[in-house]
C-alpha cells in the first residue's frame, strides 16, 4: 500500500502535488482554528475530552465525547458532573458530585 502511494506521488505533476499539499495544510490549519476557537468560546483549556473508563456508566460510556465549558461561577452542587486535573496525571478526571463538603 505504501508503494502505491509513492507511485501515485511520482505520477503527479508538480501542480497536482502542490494542490494536494496545500489542501492538506488547509485541513490541518482549519482543525487547529476550530480547536482554538472552542477554547476561547468555552473558557476551557480542554473543550473536548473522551471518556476513557466505564466508571461513569450508564450516564457516559467508554469512548463518549464530552464537550466542556467553564462558565459556572455558582458553587458546585450534588448531581453535577465535574472534570478536573490531578497533579502528575495527564488525563482529566470526570466524576459526578455526590456530596459537597463545606469547610
UniProtKB/TrEMBL annotation:
Its main location: endoplasmic reticulum. GO terms for molecular function: serine-type endopeptidase activity; signal peptidase activity. The keyword Protease applies. It comes from the Eukaryota. One of its GO terms (biological process) is signal peptide processing. The chain crosses the membrane at residues 21-41. Keywords: Endoplasmic reticulum, Hydrolase, Membrane, Protease, Signal-anchor, Transmembrane, Transmembrane helix. The keyword Chaperone does not apply. Residues 38-99 form the Peptidase S24/S26A/S26B/S26C domain. Its EC number is 3.4.21.89. CDD domains: S26_SPase_I (cd06530). Pfam families: Peptidase_S24. GO terms for cellular component: signal peptidase complex. It is found in: Endoplasmic reticulum membrane. InterPro entries: LexA/Signal_pep-like_sf, Pept_S26A_signal_pept_1_Ser-AS, Peptidase_S24_S26A/B/C, Peptidase_S26, Peptidase_S26B. It is a single-pass type II membrane protein. Coiled coil: none annotated. It catalyses: Cleavage of hydrophobic, N-terminal signal or leader sequences from secreted and periplasmic proteins. Catalytic component of the signal peptidase complex (SPC) which catalyzes the cleavage of N-terminal signal sequences from nascent proteins as they are translocated into the lumen of the endoplasmic reticulum. Specifically cleaves N-terminal signal peptides that contain a hydrophobic alpha-helix (h-region) shorter than 18-20 amino acids. Belongs to the peptidase S26B family. Component of the signal peptidase complex paralog C (SPC-C) composed of a catalytic subunit SEC11C and three accessory subunits SPCS1, SPCS2 and SPCS3. Within the complex, interacts with SPCS2 and SPCS3. The complex induces a local thinning of the ER membrane which is used to measure the length of the signal peptide (SP) h-region of protein substrates. This ensures the selectivity of the complex towards h-regions shorter than 18-20 amino acids. PANTHER family: SIGNAL PEPTIDASE COMPLEX CATALYTIC SUBUNIT SEC11, SIGNAL PEPTIDASE COMPLEX CATALYTIC SUBUNIT SEC11C. This is Signal peptidase complex catalytic subunit SEC11C. It comes from Cettia cetti. The gene is Sec11c.
Amino acid at each position: 500500500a505504501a508503494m502505491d502511494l509513492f507511485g501515485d506521488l511520482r505520477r503527479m505533476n508538480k501542480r497536482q502535488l502542490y494542490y494536494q499539499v496545500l489542501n492538506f495544510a488547509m485541513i490541518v490549519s482549519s482543525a487547529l482554528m476550530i480547536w482554538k476557537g472552542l477554547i476561547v468560546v468555552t473558557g476551557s483549556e480542554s473543550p473536548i475530552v473522551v471518556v476513557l473508563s466505564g466508571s461513569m456508566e450508564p450516564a457516559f460510556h467508554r469512548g463518549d465525547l464530552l464537550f466542556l465549558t467553564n462558565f459556572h461561577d455558582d458553587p458546585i452542587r450534588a448531581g453535577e458532573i465535574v472534570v478536573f486535573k490531578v497533579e502528575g496525571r495527564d488525563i482529566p478526571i470526570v466524576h459526578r458530585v455526590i456530596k459537597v463538603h463545606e469547610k
